[in-house]
Design a protein that fits this description.
Helix content of chain B: over 70%
Number of helices of chain B: 16
Chains: A mainly alpha (290), B mainly alpha (329), C alpha/beta (262)
Number of strands of chain B: 2
Radius of gyration of chain A: 18 Å
Largest interface: A-B, 47 and 43 residues
Order of helices and strands of chain A: HHHHEEHHHHHHH
Distance between the termini of chain A: 51 Å
Low-confidence stretches of chain B: none
Low-confidence stretches of chain A: none
Helix content of chain A: over 70%
Mean pLDDT of chain A: 90
Number of domains of chain A: 1
Oligomer: heterotrimer
Largest sheet of chain A: 2 strands, antiparallel
Structural class of chain B: mainly alpha
Strand order of the largest sheet of chain A: 1-2
Mean pLDDT of chain B: 92
């Protein structure tokens, strides 16, 4: 029983990270129709930047926002330099562009940082907290709390700010939004910036628990996709639920089946969703915008 | 009489295979040449999938690895190499058909994501099941020698040369088949889907089935290329099925121009040969590949070969116009 | 006897009932036209009939056989072909190859025959090329066969789509605004072409804004407004129908038109 609880705790922890990745992915997809294969790189950028700063003696409280900022800037650059110049490119070109951008960022991180695996101490120490016979790392609470805050913030931002409504209008009909005077380009910029910042924050929070290195981005993205597809594309609630489910499935696979194949769980979920319920648990399918 | 596209492709590819053999000074060049032909073969499969139909697979190295490991493993159980290669191709085809069926009814995004996952899963199995595959260190491949094969028909060559000729021949065959396909009923249906699947369906094309067929064909190309690599190198590691290898294959296709086998050849040639001569290339491999993918898609979406062909045609037209103007004045 | 029978078709997008309980029939050898103001649901109706959208109500029958909900490629095999309002040509193929694609259903050679370039596959491609060339000539595009479709004009592309639909050997042809963007001479040519197509005994259903063209060649006219059928009948009945005039001109305009008429 305590064992199961332990698996559940670690499942919810990594699940919260996947939920954040899925949320960032959904944000960009909704606003621009682009499936961003570089989403995982934001997580890595956040983690590696924070690791480098903290390693250089910068206090975590300052390093964390700087790392998020680094992710945000890269997200903006990605949109400006790779997505926007492609214009109305066909879907297959957009896939190749974002996968290319993800490989490029991977190489850039290998140059800027290194090829080592990095981690730093949790923000509230490393002493595990006892909990019904299981233990939980204080950093896990940071991760779960952080993801909930991001989720709540986005819900508020989309519903109650002008910029958020701009993104929503752009998402539902770009032409109509432009016609009624919404700056759709700004909305798309913003969606990339926000999405990248969310990813980087997830990386900053997760690195003490999951570790990070320059080349894990694609795997993280794949799990984010699985979460998105499981939850239903385009839905924020779906992203949250899907992320937690993927995390749990992964933790239970590692616990009861084989830790060698825990990364395979996400892929098996993708296939199962595609075979049984392509619209996911909550939302719609990804479609090609015509 | 004008030559058909298949015959033309045969002549061009065969001439290039011969040309390589004429100018190569050492075994090293033959080995690089062999790699170029193997990659050309794998990328020709991408031409069918990406160039004809307009679908992208981010896990094609997985099929490549299935071909390679089938050829490496089965001979240990007494299966002849040739048969092992066929079994690898058949296995890749079966897996592609199974995965492709449900996914290809949906938007193109799903194939990219699912193949990304499939490729990683295959790589994972190859790396973790060390008892079978030797794990990350890879395994040696024995049981077939191109040199002995050629000797049996009376041609005596060095080992590197024998592999060069064999792989060149298979790549040429692969290119001719792909061009034939492009000129056939199925090929026209593929290219129609590329431009508008709604219109293709309105003409009676079963779009999901056609996409699935293209996916299977491209998987077979990758598997055969993988088998050749395993045999020619004499060893194979899971990285042949790794994500970066999948990315390389896509990059070769888009760089040269995915719509034609000539693009496949040019892309494979550039990205195989350059890292051998420019160390910078190997050092910054990720950034170079990434930049090529993004840059090509933005600046010349149809790739190098069509872009150069267009440039030449415009030059020629301009020169003709110039001559005409001089004559008039 | 009508070949195509459509009854009670409907579909909603979000809260909008785009097509609501629309039915019509179309007979071989005749042109049946669908007219109505912009946004009346004409193209949506075509998309429902040709299987691009799946109707949430109603039925489609071809020669008495129920084909409701069949995917587009199965409908094509049942003899239905169409053109598109917002062109759906294959821009990277030549005009000839575009039309050859229309021969897909007549082509029997398998994938392997194609890969290995077997004689059967080649002969078939040659036959398709001939049929496509003939269709291009018939639609006045014979001289442009080798041209990439991307290089053709709007009016030429409209005719290219007709040629592509014709070579399928369809018994039912849905034409979505074939004369849009055409000048008077080209419209006249399209007029003759449609006439000839119907004259071969095919069932033609036409969406068109050019009212003179519609009145000239239609046997029956169906009028849609806001997704509903507001009138159906012979051209002379439609011309006099007050509801049609109202739908086109608005209630105020209709009164003026009556006054002007009097």
């Amino acid at each position: 029983m305590a064992e199961l609880l332990q698996f559940l705790v670690s499942g919810v922890t990594v699940g919260a990270i996947y939920a954040a990745v899925a949320l960032g992915f959904t944000l960009i997809y909704n606003a621009t129709g682009v499936v961003n294969f570089a989403q995982g790189e934001f997580v890595v950028i956040g983690g590696l930047t924070a690791a480098a700063l903290i390693g250089a003696g910068v206090p975590p409280l300052i390093a964390a926002p700087l790392a998020v900022l680094a992710g945000l800037v890269v997200g903006l650059l990605l949109y400006r330099l790779a997505i926007r110049p492609a214009g109305q490119a066909p879907l297959v070109s957009l896939i190749i562009i974002t996968i290319g951008a993800s490989i490029f960022l991977r190489g850039a991180m290998q140059m800027v940082f290194d090829k080592q695996i990095h981690r730093y101490d949790g923000f509230s120490g490393e002493a595990p907290i006892g909990f019904l016979g299981a233990t939980i790392l204080p950093q896990s609470l940071w991760i779960i709390g952080g993801s909930l805050v991001v989720f709540a913030f986005l819900a508020w931002f989309m519903g109650h700010t002008r910029a958020g409504r701009g993104i929503r209008a752009t998402a539902s009909n770009r032409l109509a939004a432009a016609l009624v005077g919404i700056n759709t380009r700004a909305a798309m910029n913003l969606s990339f910036a926000l999405s990248a910042a969310i990813g980087a924050l997830a990386g900053v929070l997760a690195t003490p628990v999951t570790f990070t290195s320059y080349d894990v981005g694609v795997l993280v993205a794949l799990k984010g996709f699985s979460a998105t597809m499981l939850g239903g594309v385009g839905s924020a609630q779906g992203a949250l639920a899907g992320g937690l489910l993927i995390g749990l499935i992964e933790a239970l696979t590692a616990g009861y089946v084989s830790s060698d194949y825990k990364d395979a769980a996400a892929f098996v979920v993708i296939l199962a969703v595609l075979f049984l319920r392509p619209q996911g648990l909550f939302g719609a399918r990804m479609t090609e915008r015509v | 009489m004008t030559l058909g596209p298949g015959t033309r492709t045969f002549l061009v590819f065969a001439a290039l295979v011969v040309l390589g053999a004429l100018v190569f000074p050492s075994s090293f060049f033959y080995r690089v040449g062999t790699l170029v032909w193997i990659n050309t073969l794998a990328v020709t499969g991408m031409v069918v999938l990406l160039g004809y139909v307009g679908l992208v697979s981010l896990g094609h190295a997985g099929f490549f690895a299935i071909g390679a490991y089938a050829t490496a493993l089965l001979p240990q159980y007494g299966v002849p190499s040739g048969l092992a290669m066929l079994a690898g191709a058949a296995g890749a085809a079966l897996l592609a058909a199974l995965i492709g069926r449900p996914i290809l009814k949906l938007s193109g995004y799903y194939l990219a994501i699912a193949t990304l996952g499939l490729g990683m899963l295959i790589w994972m199995v190859l790396s973790k099941e060390a008892w079978l595959t030797g794990g990350p260190d890879g395994m040696t491949v024995t049981g077939f020698s191109a040199r002995n094969l050629l000797k049996s028909v009376g041609i005596t060559l060095k080992t590197a040369e024998a592999w060069y000729w064999l792989c060149g021949a298979v790549a040429t065959l692969g290119a001719v088949l792909a061009v034939n396909l492009g000129q056939s009923s199925a090929g026209r249906a593929f290219r129609a889907i590329h431009d508008s699947d709604v219109a293709a369906a309105s003409l009676g094309v079963d779009v999901a089935r056609a996409k699935s067929a293209a996916f299977v064909i491209s998987a077979v190309y990758a598997a055969v290329a993988g088998a050749l690599l395993a045999l020619a190198n004499g060893y194979i590691t899971p990285d042949a099925g790794g994500f970066m290898h999948s990315v390389e294959l896509v990059t070769m296709a888009v760089l040269g121009g995915a719509a034609s086998v000539y693009g496949a050849l040019v892309g494979a040639l550039i990205l195989t040969a350059l890292p051998q001569v420019l160390t910078v290339f190997a050092e910054y491999e990720h950034m170079v590949l990434g930049a090529i993918m993004v840059g090509t898609m933005i600046a010349m979406r149809r790739g190098l070969v069509p872009a150069l062909a267009g440039l030449l045609a415009r030059r020629r037209a301009a020169r003709r116009a110039g001559r005409l103007a001089r004559r008039v004045s | 006897m009508s070949l195509l029978e459509v009854s009670g078709l409907g579909i909603s997008f979000g809260g909008l009932r785009a097509v609501d309980g629309v039915g019509f029939t179309a007979r071989p050898g005749e042109v049946t036209s669908i007219i109505g103001p912009n946004g009346a649901g004409k193209t949506t109706l075509f998309n429902l009939v040709s299987g691009v959208y799946i109707a949430d109500a109603g039925a489609v029958r071809i020669a008495g056989r129920e084909v409701t909900g069949l995917p587009p490629h199965r409908l094509a095999r049942a003899g239905m072909a169409r053109t598109f309002q917002n062109l759906r040509v294959f821009p990277q193929m030549t005009a000839l190859e575009n039309v050859m694609t229309g021969c897909h259903m007549a082509e029997r050679a398998g994938l392997l025959a194609g890969l290995f370039g077997l004689p059967g596959s080649r002969a078939e491609t040659a036959r398709s090329r001939e049929a496509a060339a003939a269709a291009l000539t018939r639609t006045g595009l014979g001289a442009l066969a080798g041209r990439e479709a991307a290089a053709l004009s709007y009016g030429q592309l409209k005719r290219l789509e007709i040629a592509r639909a014709l070579v399928t050997g369809c018994s039912i042809l849905l034409l979505d605004e074939p004369a849009a963007g055409c000048n008077a001479v080209e419209t006249r040519e399209i007029d003759d072409l449609i006439h000839a197509i119907a004259g071969e005994g095919r069932t033609v259903v036409l969406i068109e804004h050019d009212m003179r063209l519609v009145m000239r060649i239609s046997a029956r006219i169906l009028v849609l407004d806001q997704g509903r059928r507001i009138a159906e009948g012979a051209p002379e009945e439609i011309r006099e129908n007050p509801r049609v005039i109202e739908a086109y001109l608005g209630a105020h305009g209709a009164a003026e038109a009556r006054a002007a008429h009097a």
